[in-house]
Amino acid sequence: MESRLIPTPRTLDDVDIKSRELLGQGWGKLERFTFRHKRFDGTWSEPIQRDLYTIAEVSMVMPYDPVLDAVILIEQFRTCGLYWGEATWLFEAVAGIVDPGETPPEVAAREAMEEAGCAIAGPVHIATVFSSPGGYGERTYMYAARADLSKAGGLHGLAHEHEDIRAVAVPLDEAYAAAMDGRIRDAKTILMIQWLTAHKSRL
Q1: Which domains does the chain have, with CATH numbers?
Q2: Is the pLDDT of residue 153 over 90?
Q3: Residues with catalytic annotation?
């Protein structure tokens, strides 16, 4: 069967941005875009208004120890659950913001040391994704990388960034089970565990 998953060729010429309004800025930026876009039938859409929240580009990494067949995950408080009346301490992969002048692999290595106390080697690019494309502008680079996790774990984080992080090294099959039974709730981390389960030989 001929593949149907061929992206429609598009450029910014196919988007007519009428206005871009800054609604608020703190740790991230909330903007309101008013725009039209080319429809699949070749006509232009009516004007559309959407709000977009963006913090930055992010690099994530899943450190993997092939000797122990284990990964390291971090647990920390996240504000996402407050909207729903939940206290959300979540298990996630190591992650950090890509600052100007940095590359995503460099950030992955830095954050692995800061958040989990482990050095990584040979990062393999998994994917570059938009985690919630309807209203969140964050672009995330995801990697898996070799690491010695024999002494990894414990409490980590930078005080000036208000980080309070618990790092845990667990067998990959336990991480996969946690991704399937709801203990891991971050979609990107679930994707990374699934990828690593299928492709760990590449490391």
Answers
A1: 12-54 (no CATH), 57-202 (3.90.79.10)
A2: no
A3: 161
